[in-house]
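[agent] plan:
  1. take the single chain provided in the ticket
  2. run structure prediction with default settings
  3. attach structure tokens to the ticket
  4. add a short note for the reviewer (M.T.)
[agent] executing step 1
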Amino acid sequence: MTALAILKKYFGFEEFRAEQEAIINTVAKEKRDCLVLMPTGGGKSVCYQIPAMMMEGVTIVISPLIALMKDQVDALRLNGVPAAFVNSSQSAREQQDILERLRAGELKLLYLAPERLSGSLVDFISILKSLKVSLFAIDEAHCISHWGHDFRPDYMLLARLKENFPDVPVIALTATADKLTRVDIVSKLLLNSEWASINRMCDLLFMQICLRISKAIIRKQVVPVATAFLLTLFYTSASAMFSS
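[agent] step 2 finished; step 3 output follows
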């Protein structure tokens, strides 16, 4: 099934946004690593969920947020996608049941917290080596960087995934990463990176917002100096978040 057919069947959309299709092809067809910078709500999850459905085996998703993990798995299940998560909110029996489904080849996506790997990394690596892993997706990838605003030490161990699975593509995703953070992500995850960014889209979006704000302010006849100040402050803050 093609990426577009999966998008329509399982996610209910008729077409891809911005660079989603190019990112999906980089990972699923070319089997290359990819660093994705995309704003919140821009459709990052589709960039690894669709490849998971296209590729043989299971996609392992690393996510730091248990609530988000559960929401995504629930949504995937409702759409008919076999997905599960393993985290500290579950009993040992529940976790074992999921691992049995994993070994039986019943799952296309398995979500894990980074702490799960840091707690028993060698054992879990052994489990993964016994499986057909198609893709590793690292969500909130900025957490691996000391330059990022939300550094998490457990993310540092994720480099061992690439060391143990050199032929499995890795897609790292984040909404907030400046140049230093991006370089740090690529270096610490040992990515052979195909940079996939929609910064141009972000810049266009913010310029459109600024234009609308400007027109609204002008209609209200605000002092021109104040207008210029507010627009400069707004766009500078936006560019700091999404600058390339």
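[agent] step 4 note for reviewer: Residues 63 and 113 are 5 Å apart (CA to CA).
[agent] ticket updated
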